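Recap quiz, item 2
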Amino acid sequence: MRKLLPLLSTNPHGGGRSALTCRFRCGDACFHEVPNTSDNEYVGDVIAGALSRRSMMRAAAVVTVATAAGTSLAVGNAPAAQAASQARPHTPGRTEGARGLRFSPVAPNTADQVTVPAGYAQSVVIRWGEPILRGAPAFDADKQTAAAQAGQFGYNNDFLSLLPLRGEHGRQVLVANHEYTDEILMFKGYDSENPTREQVEIAWAAHGLSVVVVQEEHRSGKLTPVTRHPLNRRLHTTSEFELTGPAAGSPLLRTSADPSGRKVLGTLNNCAGGTTPWGTTLHGEENFNQYFANGSSPTDKRYGIGSGATERKWERFDRRFDLKQEPNEAHRQGWVVELDPYDPDSTPKKRTALGRFKHEAAQPRLTEDGRPVVYMGDDERFDYFYKFVSSKRMKKGNSRAAREHNLTLLDEGTLYVAKLTGDTPQDIDGTGKLPADGEFDGSGQWIPLATGDVSHVPGMTAEEVYVFTRLAGDKVGATKMDRPEDVEPSPRTGRVYVALTNNTNRGKGTNPGADEANPRNLNKHGQILELAEHWDDPASDGFAWRLFLVAGDPNDPATYYSGFPKEKVSPISCPDNVAFDPYGNLWISTDGNQLGSHDGLFGVATQGERRGELKQFLTVPKGAETCGPIIQDRRVVVAVQHPGEIDGASVEKPASVWPDGPGRLVRPSVVAVWRRDGRDIGV
Ligand code: FEO
Ligand code: CA
Ligand code: CA
């Protein structure tokens, strides 16, 4: 009998992500109205003629610079794109490619395992529940306690960072986000209407961050955790965090438990993040809205906070999750957290200067004079893309004074939001057909929102801009994007890559229609935007942009792989996290593949004649998403998030047997992949 695919017609993601994932990860964000109902203009409304003469001249200057560097950011490749529309099926087995990408691509598949290229090996680095702190017990699903979980690796690993550890040969410091819990897959017989206090407290302890030192194996890419290392650390829903920067102490951030407006318990829904040049990690608090009950204000609504009970019912066990009792508590989540993993006694900071929204990621780079610039996406349909430019310079070196100074860099500066204007708006018809000039491209403006205590947004104080940043973006007419997720500047070219995962509401009902940066209505597969700051200056107030990839089946004419022949690329859908390898190739992990394959990790050349040649490196098990990719010379590390998260699955009825086989609990885990012959990845 033909098996019906459940929920395909009702899942607004179109079937790529399970309803269970929607429910626990983002609080069913896509089932609700789009929170951005502001009527600010979007790209399609703006004609190229509205560009100021100054910004046109600047954009022209950028084109010249980019051309001199190799590949023009404004010149299209229409003939190649036309050839690509006659794509043939994907043929695996090729090992040529750009340096760093010379491996046989993994074919799309639905195997319940991590599938890697021929000649590569893999192993689990660490699983949910493995003890990392002194005194923490071995994982026992039937006897799990909150106290045990607080000393063990958390659930649903997402962003990963590996930092060097001086003086300890062959060791690195792994920092991981634990975005959310899926109680149905964690607890036997879980009753979602009546969670117990113990279950809730385990979930609190399974959220947050982990720091765990890992040991490299000689002559392979294998990593194993060093349990009880003094740097190992867990931070979770009841750990102390400090609000810093211009909004810290604001009346908007004060609660009855914290009249100072500076001390917060917990970090929630940490999705992607970044690693700073001064050796700290940044962690985006993403779908924090779903943890708060009884929202009532218009600002609660703009952030997607519901007016009733929450999925996990935490409000029954701690009044701070009930906004009727603590209306400001939700203002204390939705920030970028900065953690110093080298100081296990430090209090991590929530940096208010970087604004409050559903922070997906925060990726820093430095200006020529050493000031950090942080790029950030707000992962919601029709929300915005931001950057922060610090006013302070990073101090080099590892002295105590330098470290103390560098831990203040993200407290002073200017927060901007992006506005994008297409150069051929008349050619955008919502189908994804390339414009006559051969590219989805145009210019962009960084609109300042606030600098320190000074607001640049009429009608809002600086504190309001930081706490209600989405509303500030609405007022200044920022561009409504297709879910801006992870962002990564290329260490080679300085160009910035923004993953826009999808937006099936684009052009639907009263929602905005396609524009040149978001060129497909009912966008199921997403796109990657490439941005070049004017004068190559990260602190610039303007940029040029074009789409680098328009994802989907290469046989679909509404896809674009930078003009590379599409019969030679792997199909990709729903780009989410991005990272660079040592050779300047962009690596992309996916969330919610809509082409019938499991999610995976891909590498793509960004320069030279192979620019746009995308190759799949791995796929993940059933129900899982690929997160946190790190590409080192010797190894690729990924977080396998929510394996087995398929509608109808439970502890008793698992949908996946990964990573430990039948009869064992499905466990989100970090995986390392390396070459069997001991050589570097992809050379
Ligand atoms: Fe946590 Fe936007 O994915
Ligand atoms: Ca164009
Ligand atoms: Ca993500």
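The mean pLDDT is 90.
The CA atoms of residues 129 and 633 lie 29 Å apart.
End of item.
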